[in-house]
Design a protein that fits this description.
By secondary structure, the chain is an alpha/beta fold. It folds into two domains: 87 residues, Leucine Dehydrogenase, chain A, domain 1 (Rossmann fold, 3-Layer(aba) Sandwich), CATH 3.40.50; 124 residues, NAD(P)-binding Rossmann-like Domain (Rossmann fold, 3-Layer(aba) Sandwich), CATH 3.40.50. The chain is 41% helix and 16% strand. It contains ten helices and eleven strands. Strand 2, helix 2 and strand 3 form a beta-alpha-beta unit. It is globular and about 50 Å long.
């Protein structure tokens, strides 16, 4: 039976390290400050925002909510983002998405200063990631995958990795981070021929497509490590893109949904905030 790669121990280890770093910053009179920009009053957005604010408070960081109308104009939103960019007391910014349909999401995200773009939304942050530079931040969930591997002692160097899903939020950034960790990476998508065979070749398999139960025993082989990043609702219950019970009977290790990579993502956001504050000194 495969080992379950739980996210909670990973998140706790990250928070323990951050508490020490926040204390060092406090001795220098610096409190990491986060701005959360939210449009409208979507219950899911508001719940996520409250969770972020609680995490900041527990860690000793400061956070502020910038709540704007859902029907705000695009230029007005960009002007508010530019205010955040220009405020030296704010070290990082998180813009809650998805944005309203009347906006050009790419243009809005690109307005974020890369040094404050904690979730790697804009093209400047993503460009820095793909160029191998360390002056911007990767998307938090993609980074959480690498934090999971690191915590559980799984070194990607020299291993074959496959990422199923090519979004700019998870798939492509996760592939790039694996590449930077010296893995040989195959990025898979809907037109990949014989996807099960490609997945079976991988020592490390990351799945982020948003299709419940897409990956089953046919995609899995002994000795494999599988990180399931998909979050789906089926009959009112959360599940991932991987049929966990089937994969766990074959692979060496599997992350569950819920309780896996998603549990690490908020801590990565906090890590990016603290790092942004350290860089600003």
């Amino acid at each position: 039976m495969a080992d379950l790669l739980l996210g909670r121990p990973v998140a706790d280890a990250i928070k323990e390290d951050l508490a020490r770093r926040v204390a060092v910053l406090a001795e220098k009179g610096i409190t990491p400050r986060l701005a959360v920009i939210r449009l409208g009053e979507d219950p899911g957005d508001m719940a996520y925002e409250r969770s972020i604010l609680r995490n900041c408070e527990k860690l000793g960081c400061a956070a502020q909510s910038i709540a704007l109308p859902r029907d705000i104009g695009q230029e007005a939103l960009i002007a508010k983002i530019e205010e955040v960019n220009a405020d030296p007391s704010i070290h990082g910014c998180l813009l809650l998405r998805p944005l309203p349909q009347h906006m050009d999401s790419a243009k809005v995200c690109d307005a974020l200063a890369p040094e404050k773009d904690l979730d790697g939304m804009g093209c400047r942050a993503l460009g820095a990631l793909f160029a191998g530079r360390k002056d911007a931040f990767a998307p938090c969930t993609a980074q959480a995958c690498l934090e999971m591997l690191k915590f559980y002692g799984i070194d990607p160097a020299g291993k074959r990795a496959a990422v199923v899903g090519r979004s700019l939020v998870i798939g492509r950034p996760a592939g790039q981070l694996l590449l930077q960790a010296d893995a040989t990476v195959t990025l898979c998508h809907s037109r990949t021929p014989d996807l099960p065979a490609v997945c079976r070749e991988a020592d490390i398999l990351i799945v982020a497509v948003g299709r419940a139960g897409m990956i089953d025993r046919e995609h899995t082989r002994p000795g494999q490590v599988i990180l399931d990043v998909g979050v789906n609702s089926v009959d009112g219950k959360l599940c991932g893109d991987v049929r966990t019970e089937e994969a766990a009977g074959i692979a060496a290790a599997v992350s569950p949904v819920p309780g896996g990579v998603g549990a690490v993502t908020p801590s990565v956001l906090m890590a990016h905030l603290v790092e942004a504050a350290e860089r600003a000194i």
